[in-house]
Amino acid sequence: MDSSRSYCAELGRERAWSGEGLAQKGQKESVMDATTVAVDLAKDVFQVSISPRGGYVATRRRLSRRQFNLFIESLSAGTTVVMEACSMAHYWGRRCEARGAIVRLLPAQYVRPYVHRDKTDRTDADALLEAHRCAAIHAVPIKSAEHQTLQALHRVRQQWQSTRTRRINLLRALVCEHGLVFPTGAVSVQRRLAALIDDSDAAIPALLRTMLRAGLDEIRDLEDHVSMIDRELQRIARAHPVARRLQQIPGVGVITATAFIGAVPHIHGFRRGRQFASWLGLTPLEYSSGHQRSLGHISKRGDCYLRCLLVHGARAVLRVAELRMRQSDPRATAFQRWAATLAARSGRNRAAVAVANKLARFIWAVWTRDVDFAAAVPA
Q1: CA nearest 61: which of 29, 91, 85, 102?
Q2: Alpha carbon distance 22, 49 (integer Å)
Q3: SS3 of residue 104 by DSSP
């Protein structure tokens, strides 16, 4: 518990790159004097473009990982470093900020149109300089190591759950080839598989019986791993004030609350709830021209994991809302009445997406205003 509290508290020179080396190359600009530095990140090779003023690239370099580490140490305070929001970008961003640099992480899909001709590391770095000049491109906030760790827990948990589902489907298919059909459902399949393995009279080969036992053990191990992460997420959710507040919203539990905290390092970067829902891909696509406006299905942009959690939570809200409306329960809130009416009019799938959009706005409002969620109950 103490570790979770401390964790939640945190949630908030090579010669070629020295001044002497650049002077010997006959160049007046140095790393220390650079106004903007664009970096095309990679695992081992880093392309750097240095621009002292807009529209002009003074120096281009191709650095190894060791050289890039020394290059960061030579940065002066106030230098602007531009990178794509990709793998290791947040790590290098934190390193540059520690040197006093101003870091901008730009979404890769918005940088690509600025690449001229063929795609190379050099043209990618130059494209970052051009994209940096466009004020309409919003930078991605740099995540702390704690935010990335929390997000990693969710990614690992998601992969283990997916692997568990694949293993269950594989074992069901194997026994189906021998005339044994199991109904869907993880608990039911595991119980029937265990009984089948222990049944010596079952009409399955001995070698297959061994494989089934190994597969069943793997499924149980995966469930233990997922349970371990669930317990850790519950400890974090209990210790984190924002997570406790978000869980007051209908359809938002421990998993959804901690997933949003790990994925959104700066909620105040969204000016309104609609912008937050749009970032999650829960607003309609628009194709309009002149006086003709056309709205389509939701854009499905942003993090599909967060959107999936919200839609699942919205289905739970709909189920409770429809039950209370059928029973004429006086505890039905205005939100539940709206959700049930929308489902009756437009169908449950469309209503689930609309409710998920509403939940995203609730999350933004509760988080940004630092208030408790209060559901209105009609008098």
Answers
A1: 29
A2: 14
A3: strand
As given in the structure block, the two tokens for residue 130 are: 């051009």
Tokens of 378: 């009609």
Share of the chain above pLDDT 90, in %: 70
CA–CA–CA angle 350, 298, 152 (5° rounding)? 105
Give me the torsion for CA of 115, 117, 119, 120, rounded to 10°.
-100
Single out the residue in 77, 105, 132 at which a domain terminates. 132
User: What is the model's pLDDT at position 319?
Assistant: 96
Q: What are the φ/ψ torsions at residue 140 (nearest 5 degrees)?
A: -90, 125
Which of 239, 254, 269 lies at the terminal end of a domain, its last residue?
239
d(CA 139, CA 151): 20
Residues 345, 258 within the same domain: yes
Q: How far apart are CA 118 and CA 85, in angstroms?
A: 21
Counting the structural domains of the chain, the total is: 3
What 3-state class would DSSP assign to 59?
Answer: strand
Pairing verdict, β 80-84 and 45-51 = unpaired
Length of the chain: 379
CATH of the domain at 96: 3.30.420
pLDDT tens sequence across 47-66 = 999 998 888 899 999 999 99
Same domain as 365, residue 251? yes
Same domain (yes/no): 252, 235: no
In tens, the pLDDT along 22-47 reads 333 434 444 544 589 999 999 999 99
How high is the pLDDT of residue 213?
A: 93
Average confidence (pLDDT) over 112-139: 93
Are residue 92 and residue 55 in the same domain, yes or no? yes
The string of DSSP codes covering 122-175 is HHHHHHHHHHHT-TTSPPBPPPPHHHHHHHHHHHHHHHHHHHHHHHHHHHHHHH
Rounded CA-CA distance 358/255 in Å is: 18
Q: Are residues 195 and 273 in the same domain?
A: no
Q: Does one domain contain both 312 and 286?
A: yes
